[in-house]
Design brief:
three-stranded mixed β-sheet; 38% helix; alpha/beta
Length: 173
């Protein structure tokens, strides 16, 4: 599967490496370009913008730091929300608040984008070993589409509900 992966920090990098090892094609972007190098070395394609990472992808996985980073990438300077293709799957793995997740849910629905919130629980080492735990929520068909991708870096997925924000309401702190 072709995946755009956005956010290559301490957790995102090992998650993306596991997806590459599972045979997926990755286009990667990070706010700090230097962070893309380990992925490029393993066969990923560097994207100059988040929109370029999404281009031609079947799914986009985001692993950004916090609400501010998601605001910047989706609604700020990069406006990723305006370029996501209808029918694409967006899997949000980063840590955000319930209110932002609800806003993203509305914006994705307006544009015909499948949206799954799938915050991860674990450490960078767990990500390297494919042992993250995931709390996922979203429409059943979207969660089903996300499962094989999430399986590359997790040891289990708990479905918390049909509304993406339910993953953040259910995720332990």
């Amino acid at each position: 599967m072709r995946i755009g992966f956005i956010g290559l920090g301490n957790m995102g990098t090992p998650m993306a490496l596991r997806l590459l090892a599972a045979g997926h094609e990755l286009s990667v972007w990070n706010r700090t370009e230097e962070r893309t190098k380990p992925l490029i070395h393993e066969g990923a394609i560097a994207a100059a913008t988040p929109a370029e990472a999404e281009l031609g992808a079947d799914a986009v996985i985001t692993m950004l730091l916090d609400d501010a980073a998601y605001e910047e990438v989706f609604f700020g300077v990069h406006r990723l929300i305006d370029v996501l293709s209808p029918g694409i799957l967006h899997i949000l793995c980063g840590a955000i608040g319930v209110a932002l997740c609800q806003r993203l849910t509305v914006e994705h629905a307006k544009r015909g984008i499948d949206f799954v919130a799938a915050p991860v629980i674990g450490s960078p080492r767990d990500a390297q070993e494919g042992q993250l735990r995931i709390v996922a929520a979203g429409a059943e068909s979207a969660v089903d589409r996300a499962r094989p991708l999430l399986a590359a870096f997790s040891r289990g997925i708990t479905v918390a509900g049909k509304e993406p924000y339910e993953a953040y309401a259910a995720k332990p702190a």
